[in-house]
């Protein structure tokens, strides 16, 4: 508890939990990237690609991503409402239960306990745990909003409310299941209905974890870091309501050219294209905030994290809707192009904004100066180069892969076998691994910088 009455212990706890799971998740990511061109690394079922891949996605998406969101949310909620956490003990219990759940999820997935539903692989006992964790967080969110001393609701609060409500609905509806025993359950849905519900959930859980709360961070920390007011509060509000309205209709663009009814596919395409506008509303808002102050990209180390990060968000929100178009989807779907698309968002947009938020936040909650701005700049360039090399490699490989799958001989037979296409990708997989190593080194620099920051003596300047 600091002298203003705000409780930052849980903020610090979630921030360093995020760093821990980030490093663990990336180590697993490098391992499975190596397995893609060296299958001999599948030395036991526990270390097979099929099991480790879901540990990687859950460990980074939930372990790192959600921990970073909870850390910044508990910070922003107190600052924007000018109100301490109503239930700090509940928040601390939330922190400990969260980390226990991530560890249990990793062990269960490595053991092969898997529902096989993307981003919803956990079996029902852990699903119950996730719901309890989310309720613990939601209680503090809505209690602090009810008790808030600042009546004006800044845009970041609206994004946090949207995340809290929508993730709860998505998770509960999609994970409804009939338990067979403690370790196995079966979905309440079947066939095309199951696929439709799953990708309604799958796309939107990404949106409401990797988009909505990260925009909350962007709108809060960009003005704080630059000392500049956000360009347009009205544009931020219009973008928010448009995004929330359209996002929930787009999940079926993952199911183009499948047995799903064509009208549902068409609705998803229409809303996906519509989403470009509200997404770019936030990108433009970020760019115009810096008008006349673009020198901060050179002089303020935090600014480039936010602006390059939101640029990747803008590129992501162009790629995604366009990939939903039937013609492009028929070529790109199931190829490594999509893997590159996803990782541009996670390695670029999400990681860059959370990194900058931590660089701003941790010195202030610990009363210490950042250990090294030079290391923060090195971190930026390493993850930028690593991410670009990673994603561009996968885009090129995905185009080649799609072309080989669809190439035919004059008699209509396939020109290449599946194995021909797979082995042709080995050079790209090696380049992806090398790019991942560069990115990982950048993350180690990030973690070292923050650890050294909190190990320093307190600074009066940082506390101010």
UniProtKB/TrEMBL annotation:
By its UniProt entry, which InterPro entries does this protein fall under? Cyt_c_oxase-like_su1_dom, Cyt_c_oxase-like_su1_sf, Cyt_C_Oxase_1, Cyt_c_Oxase_su1_BS
Recall the GO molecular function terms of this protein's record. Answer: cytochrome-c oxidase activity; heme binding
Cross-referenced Pfam families: COX1
Q: What's a BP term from Gene Ontology annotated to this protein?
A: aerobic respiration
- Any idea where this protein resides? Membrane
- Signal peptide from the UniProt entry: none
Q: Where is the Cytochrome oxidase subunit I profile domain?
A: 1-464
Gene Ontology cellular-component annotations: membrane
UniProt protein name: Cytochrome C oxidase Cbb3
Going by the entry's taxonomy, the superkingdom of the source organism is recorded as: Bacteria
> Would the keyword Nucleotidyltransferase turn up in this protein's UniProt record?
no
Q: Which UniProt keywords apply?
A: Electron transport, Heme, Iron, Membrane, Metal-binding, Respiratory chain, Transmembrane, Transmembrane helix, Transport
What family is this? Belongs to the heme-copper respiratory oxidase family.
């Amino acid at each position: 508890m600091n002298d203003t009455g705000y409780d930052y212990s849980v903020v610090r706890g979630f921030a360093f939990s995020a760093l821990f799971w980030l490093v663990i998740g990336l180590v697993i990511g490098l391992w499975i990237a190596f397995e893609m061109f060296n299958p001999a690394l599948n030395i036991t079922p526990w270390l097979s690609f099929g099991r480790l891949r879901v540990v990687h996605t859950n460990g980074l998406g939930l372990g790192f991503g959600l921990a970073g969101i909870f850390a910044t949310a508990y910070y922003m909620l107190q600052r924007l409402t000018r109100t301490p956490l109503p239930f700090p003990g509940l928040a601390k219990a939330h922190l400990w239960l969260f980390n226990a759940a991530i560890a249990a999820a990793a062990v269960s997935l490595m053991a092969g306990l898997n529902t096989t539903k993307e981003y919803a692989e956990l079996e029902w006992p852990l699903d119950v745990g996730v719901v309890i964790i989310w309720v613990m967080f939601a209680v503090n969110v809505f209690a602090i909003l009810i008790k808030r001393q600042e009546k004006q609701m800044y845009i970041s609060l609206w994004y946090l409310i949207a995340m809290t409500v929508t993730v709860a609905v998505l998770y509960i509806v999609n994970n409804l299941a009939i338990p067979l025993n403690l370790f196995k359950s079966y979905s309440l849905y079947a066939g095309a209905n199951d696929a439709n519900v799953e990708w309604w959930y799958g796309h939107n859980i990404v949106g409401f974890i990797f988009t909505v709360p990260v925009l909350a961070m962007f709108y809060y920390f960009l003005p704080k870091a630059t000392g500049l007011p956000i360009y347009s509060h009205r544009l931020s509000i219009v973008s928010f309501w448009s995004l929330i309205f359209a996002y929930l209709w787009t999940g079926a663009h993952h199911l183009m050219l499948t047995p799903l009814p064509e009208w549902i596919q068409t609705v998803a395409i229409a809303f996906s294209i519509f989403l470009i506008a509200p997404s770019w509303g936030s990108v433009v808002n970020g760019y115009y905030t810096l008008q006349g102050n673009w020198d901060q990209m050179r002089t303020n180390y935090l600014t480039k994290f936010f602006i390059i990060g939101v640029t990747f968000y803008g590129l992501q929100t162009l790629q995604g809707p366009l990939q939903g178009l039937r013609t492009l989807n028929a070529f790109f779907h199931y190829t490594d192009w999509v893997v590159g698309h996803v990782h541009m968002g996670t390695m670029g947009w999400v990681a860059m904004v959370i990194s900058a938020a931590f660089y701003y936040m941790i010195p202030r909650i610990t009363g210490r100066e950042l250990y090294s701005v030079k290391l923060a700049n090195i971190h930026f360039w390493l993850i930028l180069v690593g991410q670009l090399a990673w994603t561009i490699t996968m885009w090129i490989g995905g185009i080649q892969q799609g072309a080989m799958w669809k190439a035919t001989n004059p008699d209509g037979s396939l020109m290449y076998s599946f194995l021909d296409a797979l082995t042709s990708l080995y050079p790209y997989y090696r380049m992806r691994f090398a790019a991942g190593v560069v990115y990982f080194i950048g993350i180690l620099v990030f973690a070292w910088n923050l650890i050294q920051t909190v190990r320093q003596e307190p600074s009066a300047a940082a506390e101010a």
